[in-house]
Design a protein that fits this description.
CATH class of the largest domain in chain A: Alpha Beta
Largest sheet of chain A: 5 strands, antiparallel
Order of helices and strands of chain A: EHEEHEHEEEEE
Order of helices and strands of chain B: EEEEHE
CATH architecture of the largest domain in chain A: 2-Layer Sandwich
Distance between the termini of chain A: 40 Å
Strand content of chain B: 25-35%
Helix content of chain A: 10-25%
CATH superfamily of the largest domain in chain A: NusG, N-terminal domain
Radius of gyration of chain B: 11 Å
Oligomer: heterodimer
Structural class of chain A: alpha+beta
Number of helices of chain B: 1
CATH topology of the largest domain in chain A: Alpha-Beta Plaits
Shape of chain A: elongated
Strand content of chain A: 25-35%
Largest interface: A-B, 29 and 20 residues
Largest sheet of chain B: 3 strands, antiparallel
Number of helices of chain A: 3
Low-confidence stretches of chain A: none
Radius of gyration of chain A: 20 Å
Low-confidence stretches of chain B: none
Strand order of the largest sheet of chain B: 2-1-3
Helix content of chain B: under 10%
Strand order of the largest sheet of chain A: 8-7-6-5-9
Shape of chain B: globular
């Protein structure tokens, strides 16, 4: 029976930690099966291993690891990370968003159109005098207000 | 060092020529989420994702 453990890492170093751990595991024959680094959680990785002992051995000496979260998590708790929705699927027309990357970084805007297949959204900047539609990647915005969304 | 993800099976590689897993030639630089599969036979995560070969994979490919 495999267990899932949460390992705390330095933020933005999750990928490096996962790669280093995987490399070490192969050499030392530790019963560790996979390492998951979801986009949604910064500074943590989820490790699938046989036992607590295996995980303790696997993290030993790996840089950027800050600790091991006590206890294990169930598969149902991590399942939603495995089938993540595209960013555009979570955005609807009328949402107020902040652009967090690119030339319009920091600007507030209202969503006018969503293209889920391209993962792009078209927005109108709130502070612009003339409303010009700007198309940006859905990953480059942060939802501020879910206005315009139909109430369930 | 840029890493590319195969658009079909999401396998991550640094050489976007031909995918070692599925043979696809379509790669993208825009991917998110990261999974390292060490033992695909014993890993429940690999089974859930339909991964049969060990390696690095992306969770979302756009």
């Amino acid at each position: 029976m495999t267990k899932y453990f949460v390992v705390k890492t330095t933020a933005n170093q999750e990928k490096i930690v996962a790669s280093l751990m995987a490399a070490g595991v192969k050499k030392r024959r530790i019963n560790l099966y996979s390492i998951l680094s979801p986009k949604e959680i910064k500074g943590y990785i989820i490790v699938e291993a046989e036992s607590n002992e295996d995980i303790v051995n696997a993290i030993r000496g790996v840089p950027h690891i800050k600790g091991l979260v006590k206890g294990d998590v169930s598969f149902t708790e991590i399942e939603h990370f495995l089938k993540p929705k595209k960013a555009a699927e979570q955005i609807r027309e009328g949402f107020k968003v902040e652009i967090i990357s690119g030339p319009f970084k920091g600007e507030l805007a209202v969503v006018k159109r969503v293209d889920e297949s391209k993962n792009e959204i078209t927005v109108e900047l709130l502070e612009a005098v003339v409303p010009i539609p700007v198309t940006v990647k859905a990953d480059n915005v942060r939802i501020l207000e879910k206005t315009g969304e139909e109430e369930v | 060092m840029v890493e590319y993800a195969c658009k079909k099976c999401r396998y991550i590689t640094e050489e976007p020529t031909i995918c070692k897993v599925c043979g696809s030639r379509e790669f993208t630089k825009e991917w998110h989420g990261y999974v390292v599969v060490i033992d695909p036979e014993k890993s429940e995560i690999a089974k859930k994702l339909g991964i049969k070969y060990a390696g690095k994979y992306a969770l979302i490919v756009s």
